[in-house]
Design goal:
alpha/beta; D-Maltodextrin-Binding Protein, domain 2; 2 domains; 12 helices; SsuA/THI5; signal; Alkanesulfonates-binding protein
């Protein structure tokens, strides 16, 4: 099948696979041809989105059918899984930490790690802002409190010993970012991925900081419902292997990422900027991966985004064993 295929039936790993590492996931059950993983994929070029077009997916999944629906915006994708209409989707590690802290029934199974050059703070062309300290008393747009943009702001200001409380943080739909950014309604935006690329590609804009400068922990993560992880751990592990394989493909052919953004409507200028970002790799949620997630969760507590450390071990599985 071609990469543009939007619906695909594939297969899962057999019963000899090892059990889940997390206590919430239960014992593995043998896969059969009736197992279906329903993936609500996002309109971003993460590997759970791009893998849907790979010919190797059938071979890797073996006895599990995979049905892709989308593209979804993140909110609708999460709702689809929580309502029982899908089984798997993707998000940022920060959102995942928030979900687990709220008691939502998710199990993460793969980290999509990148250096952080695709997350940052960009000053608008009309702002006259040249440094983070220049943002005191200025309007900085984020998508939502406690989200990636908010986290980037807090991390960057903490790293430079500055007081983020002196910034006017404005929550805004990303559909309004570019108009507000170019017109001077906001002085800067703190964002990621395609939104950051669009800001960076704006003539006269200035990148103030990206996440590589303070040690990036906030990356992408792939997750399934707790119910699906409990019933079909072998299918989840098979999808993990498919994502690893897709990551390997992307290292050799990074155009699969920019091709996906073009498919979702990104302009040439934005796509050219995205092409300069670090190509992600898939990592397991093993001891090292869990430590990174828990370190970020502690920062979420410190920043006041969540009240207490959630049990991330019980809401994740190590698919590398």
């Amino acid at each position: 099948m071609s990469r543009s295929t939007m619906l695909r039936f594939t297969s899962a790993a057999c019963a000899a696979l090892l059990s889940l590492s997390c206590s919430a996931c239960g014992e593995p059950n043998a896969a059969d041809s009736s197992t279906t993983m329903r993936v609500a994929y996002l309109s971003t070029a993460n590997y759970l989105t791009t893998v849907r077009g790979e010919d190797f997916l059938d071979e890797t999944m073996q006895h599990t059918n995979v049905k892709f629906t989308g593209p979804y915006n993140p909110t609708d994708a999460y709702s689809a899984v929580l309502s029982g209409n899908a089984d798997a989707t993707s998000t940022g590690t920060g959102s995942y930490i928030n979900f687990v802290a709220q008691g939502q029934p998710w199990v993460a199974f793969a980290i999509e790690y990148y250096t952080g050059d695709s997350q940052g703070i960009v000053a608008s062309p009309k702002s006259g802002v040249n440094s983070l300290e220049d943002l005191y008393g200025r309007n900085v747009a984020i998508i939502k409190r406690g989200g990636t943009g908010d986290y980037v702001l807090h991390k960057a200001f903490e790293h430079d010993g500055l007081d983020v409380g002196r910034v006017n943080i404005v929550e805004m739909s990303p559909s309004n970012f570019q108009a507000a950014f170019t017109s001077g309604q906001i002085d800067a935006l703190s964002s990621f991925d395609q939104n950051l690329a669009a800001a960076m590609a704006t003539p006269g804009a200035k990148l103030l900081v990206n996440a590589t400068e303070y040690g990036n922990k906030n990356v992408s993560i792939h997750m399934v419902s707790k119910d699906f992880a409990t019933k079909h751990p072998e299918a989840v592990k098979a999808m993990y292997r498919a994502l690893v394989r897709e990551s390997d493909v992307a290292q050799a052919t990074p155009s699969i990422i920019t091709d996906a953004y073009r498919e979702f409507g990104a302009s040439d200028d934005v796509t050219e900027q995205i092409a300069r970002f670090n190509v992600p790799v898939i990592k397991p949620i093993d001891a090292e991966g869990l430590k990174m997630l828990e370190s970020q969760a502690q920062e979420y507590v410190d920043f006041g985004f969540i009240d207490a450390m959630p049990d991330l071990q019980a809401a994740s599985m190590d698919c590398s064993a």
